[in-house]
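Justification of resources, computational component.

The compute hours requested in this renewal are based largely on the per-chain cost of generating structure records like the one below. Each record pairs the submitted sequence with a full structure-token output. That output is archived, and it is also reused by downstream analysis tasks.
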Amino acid sequence: MTPTRMLTGLALLLLVSVLFSSGQGAYGLGLTELWALAWGVGEDQEALQAAEMVFMNIRLPRLLLGVAAGAGLGMAGALMQGLFRNPLADPGLVGVSSGAALAAGITIVMGSLWFPELPRALGSWTLVLMAFLGGLGVTVLIYMLAQSEGGVRVGQMLLAGIAVNALAGAGLGLLQFLATDEQLRSLQFWLLGSLGGARWSAVLLVSGLVCVAMIWGVRLAQPLNAMALGEAQAVLLGVRTEWLKRAVVVITALAVGVVTATTGVIGFVGLVAPHMVRLMAGPDHRWVLPGSALLGASLVLLADAAARTVAAPAELPLGILTALVGVPFFLFLLRGKAGRIL
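The structure output for this chain reads:
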């Protein structure tokens, strides 16, 4: 498949995913209702007003947040795999997800004791801010641990990420042990991921930062292509490898940090989406980066649509569905063509 056809197909898939997800949920909207909403015409004006209220205040912010979250996670996964030159690399390797989760756990379990004034000042944004700062803090720690006299070693960053992620997981386990039943329920709900808390302010924040990260990330396509030949070869080709490493880490921390802080932990999107794009169009990052963003957005939207309908009117955690769908599909890829890439 040519890269142009691949991107066109993924753009169409995203459009179909948006239309399909628009009608799913406890309050179902069929194509007729969506058409009436789009043009503002309908026989039953009262039903049309109710549908418009649901769509504009609940469904549309959720859709836009899902697109931004999936695009950010997909592109971050492609960047990390390009930097590490390893198809098993995941955005979580730089510690942003585990750091955000640990900070969220501290806020939920110990927040009333350690910083009781924050909720009064920030309200519902307290958890989002703390999770974002926690993700960035752990990312900076891993980057510092990977420093050496010759610069940042990618392999050392990988090992530091594994160790710090394990430490953050232990801290999170301790917090779960100390939590009350109510705190534990809140923490588990956040850790499993959801788009249910979508609101326009969060949509603007996530969309804005993810757009900045994507514009910056796409400009790194050519240096990442050179990096695929090896770090020494990339230097000979004129690539500033140390700057490239810092840029990839900052972009990943920015995109994944703001997404995780707002939606909770959504796994496997950043690992599966770049794999599927490479299978369709090859390893050129000029196509892998935008393709991973488009496919990641579609995967999150479709998973969220399933989360709202499988057990309606209840809602399944989004992180569970992405893992349930992503893991078998990833194993299927490993048994096929993708296994030769590894």
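The chain has a mean pLDDT of 84. The radius of gyration is 21 Å.
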